Amino acid sequence: MADFNKILDAGDVDGGIINVVVEIPTGSSHKIEWNRELAVFELDRIDPQIFAKPCNYGFIPRTLDEDGDELDVLIITEYPLTTGIFLKAKVIGVMKFVDDGEVDDKIVVVPADDRNNGNAYNSLDDLPKQLINQLQFHFSHYKDLKKPGTTVVESWGDVAEAKDVIKDSIQRWKDM
Fold it and tell me: Any idea of its EC number (predicted)?
């Protein structure tokens, strides 16, 4: 398997098109994570089915969030994507998130070339409000059965704020 942190970079952050690697498909309750040391995907745990991911989940190569992992992304597509693929994605916002006291932000993206919806999503305002509500609910409660109250969606940010979060994470990676 390719080491995504060696063969890819974060992409064109200023232009708003980044490289994203898929870890978890929409609808999966498998918590699959990229193991940076081994350069493989690892099944970390199986979450209760009621907390299956409401969207695809992945990371941006060569980034490091404040929690010590690559920067997470929420990938909005109509159908699930496959673990282990990468895509060029358009940044549309950021979910400011805290997990067990650590900053664990999630960049919200869509495929850069989505002909199914005519590339209609350019900001969080373009997404259905119900989807935003579902994402907020999921990430506010997905650990409630084991560690209640440890996850908090603090706010949602626009494309400019998302790009700043990505740039900070790229710098953290370089400083590692």
Answer: 3.6.1.1
